[in-house]
Amino acid sequence: MVEGLEGVVAASTRLSRVDGEAGRLTIAGYDVDDLAPQATFEEVAYLLLRGRLPDPPGLAAFSLDLASRRALPPIVHDVLRAAAADGTPPMDALRMGASLLSLGRTSEAHEDALTAIAAFPTIVGSYWRYRSGSPAVSIRPELRHAAHYLHQLTGDEPSSERTRALETYLNTVVDHGLNASTFAARVIVSTRSDVISAVTGAVGALKGPLHGGAPGPALDMVFEIGSADRAEEVIRAKLDRSERLMGFGHRVYRVRDPRADVLSHAAERFYNADGERGLYDLVREVEAIALRLLRERKPHRRLDTNVEFYTALLLHGLGLPAELFTPTFAVGRVAGWAAHCLEQMRDGKLIRPQSEYVGPIGLHYQVSSLKSEVLKSET
Ligand code: ACO
């Protein structure tokens, strides 16, 4: 038995390859550092769903199709309003909204895949506006996917720099081998269930702090440190308390996560333009000290920076509150989940591993005298 299935290969995929020793991520043939900062999100979603980049007419038709699926059924807005009034965490609101996307439609896998990708930004954006006491904004079909998400959150049309920065982020996290949420999605459709059920389950898997929930705490640590001269003291104290440093360590990468580099460059460009360079520099210094202390404390472990550390910095720069970091991850990753579902449905077999039973055997059931009395009085 392999604890946590570490190192176990459980699916073949053409969607992405994670090389943990070399620190290299390939997305359907393209290195992440080549593809993510240049392509639009629509191009990357098309690449994952269709296996190649689109030509201009193909991209225009695909973008139009996605944009036509952005609006949510009214009942989804009702649920999101109720969730907002209740103070439901955004990932739970997204899970509720996602599950309702099958309402009023017959389930067809490709249709479900496109609908989920198109609707996630609207769900998160509308929910956040309700939480902030504002009405949802109308859909602007002419905006690019990333700009649509920012518009749904803020009600404003974002600048091209902001759109590009978010698009780079969404492309960077769009797919990543058989991570926990993608595995959950593939397990669900492997039973011949549907794509909406699978992406709903995947949202639940992504929510946990060991997977998609780390960037908020990573940024909290930077703010707690406040200035570079306090970094060593604060980080040492965390490690003394056996706390994990959020944004460091990875199940597959034994070197720096290549996505951290893509996001660090995107953040640097964005913070230079935005004039908040000081925060960027502080994050770089905190990273260097954290890595030094992790090497000192855990010399036998190869712990390095993961994607979440710079996610926090970039999304904070875009004005997103920490509560929206994980839902924004889902807005990007849903395209990967959807593509994995289609691949699993096309090529895959029911995923049903075995467990090793470690409980007692040979126990005998005995009816207690008290239970006999209760049964008698019931007859
Ligand atoms: N800080 C301090 N110590 C760490 C960290 C960390 N961030 N990560 C791992 N370790 C240590 C553990 O304490 C353990 O030490 P020990 O053997 O002395 O007890 C050892 O490294 C191995 O830890 P595991 O949990 O067995 O390693 P695993 O591969 O299962 O963990 C994980 C990977 C969950 C990402 C882990 O590194 C972690 O908790 N990181 C912090 C949370 C985080 O950043 N999550 C986002 C991951 S990226 C993503 O999902 C998109």
What does this structure look like?
This protein is an all-alpha fold and 379 residues long. It folds into two domains: 27-212 and 325-347, Citrate Synthase, domain 1 (Orthogonal Bundle); 215-317, Cytochrome p450-Terp, domain 2 (Orthogonal Bundle). The protein is built from 17 helices and three strands. It has helices spanning 32-35, 41-50, 56-67, 74-85, 90-99, 109-131, 145-154, 160-172, 180-190, 195-206, 215-225, 231-240, 258-274, 277-297, 307-317, 325-347, 369-378, and strands at residues 16-19, 24-27, 30-31. The protein has a three-stranded antiparallel sheet with strand order 1-2-3. A hairpin with a 4-residue loop joins strand 1 (16-19) and strand 2. The protein is globular, with a radius of gyration of 23 Å. The protein starts with 15 loop residues before the first strand and ends with a helix. Acetyl coenzyme *A is lined by residues 4, 210-212, 214, 244-251, 298, 301, 303, 306-308.
List keywords for this structure.
379 residues; mainly alpha; Citrate Synthase, domain 1; Cytochrome p450-Terp, domain 2; 3-stranded antiparallel β-sheet; 3% strand; binds acetyl coenzyme *A
Number of domains: 2
The biggest beta sheet, please? 3 strands, antiparallel
Bound compounds, each kind once, are: acetyl coenzyme *A
Q: H/E order of the elements?
A: EEEHHHHHHHHHHHHHHHHH
Look at the structure and give the mean pLDDT. Answer: 94
- Classify the helix fraction into a percent range: 55-70%
Q: State the end-to-end CA separation.
A: 48 Å
Q: From the coordinates shown, what is the CATH architecture of the largest domain?
A: Orthogonal Bundle
CATH homologous superfamily classification of the largest domain? Citrate Synthase, domain 1
CATH secondary-structure class of the largest domain: Mainly Alpha
Q: Report the uncertain regions.
A: none
CATH topology of the largest domain: Citrate Synthase, domain 1
Instruction: Find the count of extended strands (DSSP E, 2+ residues).
Output: 3
Number of helices: 17
